[in-house]
Give the backbone structure.
Amino acid sequence: MPGFTFGVIGGLICLFEFLIWPRKKLRSWRIGKVSTWMRAHIWLGLLAVPLLVLHTGFRWGGPFSATLMTLFLVVIASGVWGLVLQQFLPEKMLKEVPAETIFSQIDYVSELMAAEASQLVRAVCNITTGGDGEESFSNESHMVVGAVRSTGAIQGRMVVTASLQESVPDSKPLYDFFNEYIYGFLKNGEMARSPLQNPARAHSMFNSLRTKLPPRAHEVVAVLEDLCNQRRQIITQAKIQFWLHSWLWVHLPLSVALIVLMFVHIFVAMKYW
């Protein structure tokens, strides 16, 4: 009889644990705060472990019972893993990603950075597109209207056209460097497999680029270097966000399977009791 009691209590806890998901999704529910539910979810989930172990009588039983118990332990382990990640990853993101942006807008922000950096370089290098669609480089000096803005939660400079007042002669090395290294990195991040992904390597490359350009072009190099720094932060943010949420891909589906098999277990147990 004690084993039956432990099983009933443990089963009810499992049902309550699963209710955290609709409670998070259905904001119209006014049954306690989500934070209170989460604390109860954690502590009751841990309490269910000794209860259901006592329910089994410290025996694995047949194949079905062993599968059910294994699934339960994996669900608990994945939940504990997720709890551990939630304790230190947000702080890590706060320290390493001061230019954090909205996760769902990362692709948009990346494309915007690449497009605006391209517009900046084309303006400073005085790149024009002819009637045949081919780009041409000119050393003539023309006025460039500049502006700086911020997008979303991105901190720092997001260039609209240029921070310089006029195009810079002899700046073709900047144009070549941008096309070879910067544009693909800003737009595609890690997928570009760019050496700019390494901060030390990027710093060295930008310093080398400065030696090939007149001093008047150094300001735009600083802007592009800043954009690359922000892009590296976005890459770091995406990685941290992945680890913050990827454990749910294991925890939630297995929790659904656990509830289904638990009801099967109850039906079979009651049928042959």
